Amino acid sequence: MFKILPDMSEDIVQIIGGLNNKAALKQHIYRNTKSVFKEIKKCAEEIAHKLAPEVVKKDKSVEVEIKRISDFEFHLKFSGDTIAFIMHTNIFTFPPQHEVTKMPYVMEAPERGYCGMIQAYNFLSDSLKYQRLGDVGYLLARLFINAEGHFYVDGQRQLDFLYKDFHKNIINEEAIVKIIEQTMLYALDFDLYVPPVNVMSEITLEQKNYFNNPGGLATGKRLGFKSE
What we know:
Layout: H1 10-55, E1 64-70, E2 73-78, E3 81-92, H2 104-107, E4 115-124, H3 125-129, E5 138-145, E6 151-155, H4 173-189, H5 205-210
Antiparallel strand pairs: 1-2, 2-3, 3-4, 4-5, 5-6
Helix pairs in contact: 1-4
């Protein structure tokens, strides 16, 4: 326990105590999240290693590979789709109206509601290859991990209901593999739509000149449409 100096007010003492406790908690969660992110990358590499020789039997041009971007981002590319897995470096808590905040598991110990966050975004592989900076990526899933190693997921389709039991879900390799596989399945089913005609009814001369340039007009699977 730190020594209370004579010139410290009660408010200052309370602030110091709060900072010490919360800072330690957040550092613990950060380390947990970083460890989980490394495990996600390892599992994604294993999945890519299994898939690659199978898909080239049909078409040698189909690529399945992992690309490291930084300590906090890597890409899982499978043909025309790429999933960008990104770890946020900050720690979050859920708003008062969120279902996590209302769970008995969190209500009895509010610090359990503090989580690190890992996101999975679906991009067209060409968007990354040609650096089309205006292209859109779509959020497939968000994985939240707390200090006790419990996790919660929100996302598309099955990923929006498979892992809602925050008090029961403890992160492990089986869950990580399932999450990766579900993001891949959704990306494969999430096709590139032709934009509505009114979106492309007028173009500038500059845009016309971009049409035959791979880095040209912005592209997204549902550009001009509402996302599912």
